[in-house]
């Protein structure tokens, strides 16, 4: 499947299902666009962009069009090796032929699982912090909960009570509320466990 970088991940998953293309349904559970998914090797429920990546088109800071193949880019947990200056404009992703009904059924199961465990109806940027890299270690949400941060509020921002690795806008949160709350969570986790949580959300600009 060829998709523009501005295409919503969920829309790509639905179109793949309609075309009888399996293996891309995990994209239905990722908020954001294909360009962002490429940049951070987005994934959920055991699948990541690296598992389906065939190639991409990008533009560099000089405006030159660059074609990338699978061997040109390496992916790791929530990151890719493409230079920061490259702006993705298109991706080619590999699926497998399957019946549309089977693909939709799996996609619906993923959606139901996500809605049962994550605040998908709230205003949120998705998972906030990366899981620590230590093998067998605790996930970010576990560390946040153990630090007593579930439901923590700062201005219009709140640590979700449903899944505490999500920061939500309760209605009138400013960027400073969300960033300040995130930094408070990081401090509390570091104080309790000695682990420095790394932001998964990419922050842009100067506060």
What do these coordinates show?
- The protein is of the alpha+beta class.
- It folds into two domains: 2-116, 2-Layer Sandwich (Uridine Diphospho-n-acetylenolpyruvylglucosamine Reductase, domain 3), CATH 3.30.465; 119-193, Alpha-Beta Complex (Uridine Diphospho-n-acetylenolpyruvylglucosamine Reductase, domain 1).
- The chain is built from five helices and 14 strands.
- The chain has helices spanning 9-18, 34-40, 100-117, 140-146, 175-193; strands spanning 2-4, 21-22, 43-44, 47-48, 53-59, 65-69, 75-76, 79-80, 87-93, 96-97, 123-127, 153-154, 157-159, 166-169.
- The strands form five sheets. It has a four-stranded antiparallel β-sheet with strand order 1-9-5-6, with helices on one face.
- The longest helix is centred in the C-terminal third of the chain and has 19 residues, at 175-193.
- It is globular, with a radius of gyration of 18 Å.
- The chain starts with a strand and ends in a 14-residue tail after the last helix.
- The model has no long low-confidence stretch (mean pLDDT 92).
